[in-house]
Amino acid sequence: MAGTRKPVVEVRRSQRRRRTVSAYRDGERVVVLIPDQFSRAEETEWVDRMLARLAAREERLGRSDEELLLRSRRLIDRYLSEHGRAAVPASVRWVTNQNGRWGSCTPADRTIRISHRIQEMPDWVIDYVLLHELAHLVVPSHNARFWELVGRYPKTERARGYLEGVAATAGIVLPD
Questions:
Q1: In angstroms, rounded to a whole number, what is the distance separating the alpha carbons of residues 105 and 4?
Q2: What tens digit of pLDDT does each residue of 102-124 get?
Q3: Beta-carbon neighbour count of residue 163 at 10 Å?
Q4: Phi, psi dihedrals of residue 84, rounded to the nearest 5°
Q5: At residue 160, what are phi and psi to the nearest 5 degrees?
Q6: Mean pLDDT over residues 19-32, rounded?
Q7: How far is CA 91 from the centre of its chain?
Q8: Widest CA span in the chain
Q9: What pTM was computed for the model?
Q10: Other CB atoms within 10 A of residue 167 CB
Q11: Distance between start and end Cα atoms, the chain
């Protein structure tokens, strides 16, 4: 099976490291940093765990524009179905040039752009940002009707809090 081959792993033990384990990719090799006192069984367990985490992270980073479009269709069907074509974007894509917002929408040409900075965030956060932008296709402003549409998503407040926390930690000043 192609793509299921285990990468070359280099385990580095550290006497200074007490409890934490970390891993990173160095070219084709994965480096796993573990405490020196770990047994061979603990080492094996943690190497497997860290390889799974790296694979999940890389999968999230590999999210495509096509996946965003499919995700938007699911969100429209679930939360904006009564708006028909009005809620359907012409395009949805990841962009790397949005440093002051998580996403943007241009209702005039029905395009949605989502910041690459959220690619690693949980799916429910991505869904919130995407639904927020889809709602702008129906209601361009942030008025009460707009927030009613966005509020249909059950994790709206949780996602907003998550994003506010990320922004505060990173020192990002976002528009209201």
A1: 38
A2: 999 999 999 999 999 998 899 99
A3: 19
A4: 50, -135
A5: -60, -45
A6: 87
A7: 19
A8: 61
A9: 0.68
A10: 16
A11: 48
